[in-house]
Amino acid sequence: MFEDNDDRHYTVVRNDEEQYSLWPTDRALPPGWVSAGVTGTKSACLDHIRTVWTDMRPKSLREFR
């Protein structure tokens, strides 16, 4: 769906399980997702996600004790 050489702008989005994704800035956010406060090129958004999403487990699994 997303091409590596596209010039669109994206928003980094996060769900309640603290999982991250990209979403085109010109579209309404999908249900269950909120903006993580970062927008930019695909590359910049992916760099941000790589920095902040260091534990791929869903929040409910990380907090399970």
UniProtKB/TrEMBL annotation:
GO biological process: siderophore biosynthetic process
Domain of life according to the entry: Bacteria
Pfam families referenced in this protein's UniProt entry, alphabetically: MbtH
InterPro entries on file: MbtH-like_dom, MbtH-like_sf, MLP_fam
MbtH-like domain boundaries: 1-51
GO CC list: cytosol
PANTHER family tied to this protein: ENTEROBACTIN BIOSYNTHESIS PROTEIN YBDZ
Protein name, UniProt field: MbtH protein
Species: Saccharothrix variisporea
